[in-house]
Every structure is written in structure tokens, then in C-alpha cells.
Amino acid sequence: MSEATKYRQLSFWHDSVPGTLEPGPSLEGTVEADVAIVGAGLTGMWTAYYLNQADPGLSIVLCEREIAGFGASGRNGGWCSALFPASLGKLDRMAGREAAVAMYEAMQQTVNEVGCVTIKEGIDCHWAKGGTVQFARSPTQLERAREEVDEARLYGFGETDVRLLSAEEARDLGGVSDVLGGVYTPHCAAIHPARLARGLSDLLRSRDVTIFEKTEVQRISPGLVETASGAVRARHVIRATEGYTPGLPGLRRAIVPVYSLVIATAPLSETIWDQIGLELRPTFSDMRHLIIYGQRTADGRLVFGGRGAPYHFGSAVRPSFDQVPAVFSDLRSTLIELFPVLRDVVVTHAWGGPIGIARDWCASVGLDPATGIGWAGGYVGDGLSTTNLAGRTLADLITGKDSDLTRLPWVGHRSPQWEPEPLRWAGINAGLRAMTWADHREARTGRPSAAASVFGRFLGG
Ligand SMILES: Cc1cc2nc3c(=O)[nH]c(=O)nc-3n(C[C@H](O)[C@H](O)[C@H](O)COP(=O)(O)OP(=O)(O)OC[C@H]3O[C@@H](n4cnc5c(N)ncnc54)[C@H](O)[C@@H]3O)c2cc1C
Q1: How many CB atoms within 10 Å of residue 366?
Q2: Residue of 64, 283, 284, 292 to test ligand 1 pocket, by largest number of atoms within 8 Å of CB
Q3: 315 lines ligand 1 (CB under 6 A)
Q4: Where does the pLDDT of residue 450 fall: very low under 50, low under 70, confident under 90, or very high at 90 and above?
Q5: 105: Cβ–Cβ under 8 A, 6 or more apart, which residues?
Q6: Protein residue whose Cα sits closest to atom 48 of ligand 1
Q7: pLDDT 10s digits, 152-185
Q8: 284: Cβ below 6 Å to ligand 1?
Q9: Strands 181-185 and 132-136
Q10: CA dihedral of 33, 36, 39, 40, whole degrees rounded to 10
Q11: Against a cut of 0.85, is the pTM above it?
Q12: Ligand 1 atom at minimal distance to the Cα of residue 63
């Protein structure tokens, strides 16, 4: 099987992205650059994009172990949202109310920034800014919906940012079963993520940014990126490896990779879409503890994902972990539970990938001026747009520009290390099980379950 055929099989998105997936040239020997970036996902590529915009004379080199867009960036759920893994309350406690609000406003603006850049640069990523609807399908879920809106109001976000939906309003957006209400925010677009990632890599190459593919970085140190067949010497070195970070020396406990899994249906008939709705392609979920997420694609499928796959001992990441038949089967059942009209639905694609979680559940971006080493990540499942904010921020930090972005509270934030094994393995998997159990219990009894908050406390989320 050719390399390109292998990469096509990574996800529905890779299977349907235009252009070749044949890897580009690899690094051989030693090269000099102004900025070396490890990882050609959206964090690495947005950083390169904004650096090139700021100063087209800068030489920028990306080293990618597989191909650009191989990781989470090419295979996610396609929610380009304003979600940030740390809540407003948590950011307030960390950095104060004003900083918390500034962070959330920056996220909202970031959604529009991604939309504007893709239009300006001619990247057709099937952009549809239909917002997000979170359905509430039990009294406890409705209570959580109210709490979410109340928290937003406390920080001054009004009806145009987030609003509570009646059962009828929620049903008008999507024909989901057992709906009691929901929450709607306009700050989200549904996109085809591999079209964004591959479009960005083509654009960067056309602007003389170098992307070495099939180039595994073995070590990062000040001024130096080392691979088996060469090295990049650069004043600035950026680590943009998210869920794969624990594979780098010295970073085993910096981030944990937790798998999120996804299925895609065959294109659905117009009759079925008449019953499901989602006409403006709002992304959707409900308010259970163990996250689920879906989108109506531009070609009339449902792409639907969720957590629930186990965490692997030692923060291991392997291609075989992308496939968990029991979780795929649960996802299909949950989709049918949400939309009973899908009882005979055909699933054409099933895949997964690692998301990156910091110990305190707070994403961060930063550049150490002493070493010239920068990083961004810990986005949990909210990195699709956050990578763009990270890229713009890193560009400002590298070029020494003091801006509103470089003053946001996640800049320079240092999360604590994760626990050593086996505590890490035991704690995370117990937590994942507790959340599943809490959802089942709530569905059965109609009462909130305390089990999920135990997980929240362990993770600091
Ligand atoms: C299944 C799934 C669904 C998701 N859904 C959503 C969603 O709907 N909305 C949302 O906002 N977020 C979502 N996310 C999260 C989001 O996709 C990520 O947060 C984001 O893409 C991270 O981008 P990144 O560039 O930092 O990391 P990645 O895209 O993972 O890129 C890291 C790159 O580094 C490379 N690399 C790693 N180690 C090395 C090395 N040693 N040498 C060279 N290269 C290396 C990898 O091959 C990879 O290409 C989802 C993630 C997954 C897995």
C-alpha cells in the first residue's frame, strides 16, 4: 500500500480531502532557519502562517513525523468553536475577571479570524457558521444548561453570545428525541478539518515556508531540533506536538493523550434530513458528562464523535488505539438514540486520535526568552480554533510585539506535571468510567450524580 493510500484511511476527512497525500521531502543534513517548528498540525502551521505574514523574510522550517494534518488537526469533529478548556470561573480565579472575559472574547474573535483567513486565502474548508446547539434531554441536563447560561451572564455575556432554548426552539434546530430545551451559541462554524489543514500546508509551501515530512524529531534543545538524519539550527524552536508530546524526551508527564473517537455515516436522504433538520449546519451535542459532538457535513452525512476510549498506560500513542469497535458501536447507538430516524444508518468511516490534556485542564502558549523555546497546547477537545489564537500569539511573542494577545491569561501559563504511573493510568481510567456511569445513572434516575464531579476534581477540570 502506498503512503498516500495509508494516509487516506486515517479518517473520513483524509479520505475526502482533495490533492495528494504523498509525503513531501524529508530533512537530510543540517539546515539553518530563524524559526524551527516541531509538528505540522494547526498549531505549527498557524504559527508559520502568521510569522510569514509579519515578516516574509523570516526563514521558517517545520518538521513533521508523518504528513501535515496527520494528527488531531486533520481528523477532528470539525467544530471551529469559541470553547476554551478552562471555564470563565477558573480563569477568573487564575488571573482575574477582566482577563477571563478577555480570553473568552478572544476565542469568539478567533472563530471569525479563521473564517476570514480561509476566505482571503481561498481555502475551501466547507465553512458554515451555524453556531452550536447543546440539547438538554433530561431534567438534570436542563439544570446544567441553565447553570451554563447563568455563568455566562455573570461575566457579562448576553443573549447574542449564549441563550437558553425552550424545547420547541431546540427541536426547531434539530429533531432530537426527548428534548426539554438546550443552549445555543452562534460562535461556532462546522468545517472540514483536513481541507483546512492541507489547504494551509499548500499555502505555506507556496510562500517558501519549508515543511519536511516523514521527519521525526528526536530531541528539542535551545537553538536545535534533532532528527535521525539531520538537524535544524534556529534561534526559536516551537513545540507543537499536542497529544504526541509525551514521546519527546523530558516531556512524558507534560500532557496526557486521551483518545476521542468518531464515526461518519453515508450521505443521508433528503427525507431523513427533513426530520433531522440542522439546516444551517449548527454543530450539536447534549449535556451529558462524557462529551459527544456532531456535525452535518457539506455532503449530507453526519459526523459524530465522543470520548470513552481508555487512556493507555505510560501516555502511549499508537495507530491501533484509533480503532475501538465497542466505542464505535456505542457512538452509532447514541446517534440512533438522538435521531431514531437513523435506525438503519450505514456507517462508512470510523476513526480516532489523541487530544492533549494538561494537568490543570488549562491550555497554554508561551515562549521562554532565555532559551528561545516556545510551545502551545493542552487544548483538550477545543483546539481547532484555539490553535489559530496560539499561532497569532506565538508570532507576536517571537517577533517581540507587545499586543492584546500576548497579555491573555493563558500566555506563559505553566501547568503542573501529571502524576507518575500507575497513578495516572488508574486515576484517568477510573474517571472516564465514573463519567459513563454517571450518565447512565442520571438517565435511569433523573437525578444528578456525584460520580462525575470526582473525575472533575481529579483532573482539575
Ligand atoms: C477525534 C478528535 C476530535 C476532535 N474534535 C474537535 C473539534 O470538533 N473541535 C475542536 O476545537 N477540537 C477538536 N479536537 C481537538 C483538536 O483537533 C486539537 O486540539 C488540535 O487539532 C491540535 O492541533 P495541534 O497542531 O496542536 O496538534 P496535532 O494536530 O495533533 O499535530 C501535532 C503534529 O505533531 C506531529 N508530531 C508529533 N511528534 C512529533 C515528533 N517527535 N517529530 C515530528 N512531528 C511530530 C504529529 O504527527 C502531528 O501531525 C479533536 C481531536 C480529536 C483527536
Answers
A1: 19
A2: 64
A3: no
A4: low
A5: none
A6: 71
A7: 999 999 999 999 999 999 999 999 999 999 999 9
A8: no
A9: antiparallel
A10: -50
A11: yes
A12: 43
Closest-lying ligand 1 atom to the alpha carbon of residue 377? 26
pLDDT band, residue 431 (cuts 50/70/90):
confident
Q: 349 has which bridge partners?
A: 264
The protein residue whose alpha carbon is closest to atom 34 in ligand 1 is 39
Task: Answer yes or no: is the C-beta of 327 below 6 A from any ligand 1 atom.
Answer: no
The model's pLDDT over 366-396, given as tens digits with 9 standing for 90+, comes to: 999 999 999 999 999 999 999 999 999 999 9
Say if CB 380 and CB 83 are below 8 A apart: no
**pLDDT for the residue 95:** 97
- For residue 453, what pLDDT is reported? 55
Nearest to 180 by CA among 286, 331, 294: 286
Decide: helix, strand or coil at residue 406.
Answer: helix
Across 361-369, average pLDDT:
97
Ligand 1 contact, 293 CB (< 6 A): yes
Angle at 204 between CA 203 and CA 209, to 5 degrees: 155
pLDDT tens by residue, 70-83: 999 999 999 999 99
Q: Look over the chain and give the mean of its residue pLDDT values, rounded to a whole number.
A: 95
Ligand 1 centre to CA of 147 (Å) is 30
Beta strands in 201-344 (DSSP E): 210-212, 217-221, 224-227, 230-239, 256-265, 283-286, 292-296, 302-306
Q: Contact, 77 vs 380, CB < 8 A? A: no
- Is there an atom of ligand 1 within 6 Å of 240 CB? yes
**Which one of 37, 65, 66 would you pick to mutate in the ligand 1 pocket, going by the greatest count of ligand atoms within 8 A of its CB?**
65
Long-range contacts of 201-207 (CB under 8 A, 24+ apart): 201/40, 201/45, 201/68, 201/69, 202/19, 203/49, 203/121, 203/123, 204/45, 204/48, 204/49, 204/52, 204/62, 205/24, 207/52, 207/56
The average pLDDT across 205-213 equals: 98
Q: How close is the Cα of 308 to the center of ligand 1, in Å?
A: 18
- Ligand 1 pocket, residue 379 CB under 6 Å: yes
Centre of ligand 1 from the C-alpha of residue 240, in Å: 9
DSSP class of 314 = G
Q: Is the CB of 17 under 6 A from ligand 1?
A: no
Q: What is the DSSP string of 326-353?
A: HHHHHHHHHHHHH-GGGTTPPEEEEEEE
384 Cβ closer than 6 Å to some ligand 1 atom: yes
Q: How far apart are CA 21 and CA 2, in angstroms?
A: 10
* Higher pLDDT among residues 217 and 309, named by residue: 217
Q: What are phi and psi of 428, to 5 degrees?
A: -65, -45
